[in-house]
Amino acid sequence: VQLVESGGGLVQPGGSRRLSCAASGFTFRTYGMSWVRQVAGKGFEWVSSIDKGSVTPLYVDSVKGRFTISRDNAKNMLYLQMNSLQPEDTAVYYCTKDRVHWGQGTQVTGSS
Length: 112
Known about the structure:
Blueprint: E1 2-6, E2 9-11, E3 17-24, E4 33-38, E5 44-50, E6 58-59, E7 67-72, E8 77-82, E9 91-97, E10 101-102, E11 106-110
Parallel strand pairs: 2-11
Antiparallel strand pairs: 1-3, 3-8, 4-5, 4-9, 5-6, 7-8, 9-10, 9-11
């Protein structure tokens, strides 16, 4: 299993960013996937999950209405569209399969 995130960077308050996660080594279309973030010096926080059929995406309350999770099963890709970014969204964002397999993470920094 390999998960490779990309798309992080420095974002102005109110800005947008799209994170991508390229998945390989397993049958992507048969698994739900998640995004989890870690603020420096703090624990992990679940952000969003999407089932294999993209039917019922779920979000932590703090990102509802701002973030959108999606997937392209034909391309083995997971995405997180982040809008209206705030400094408190600053974290390393990880995609994960089953909370067992994780990518290396991508840093998103909301400037103040």
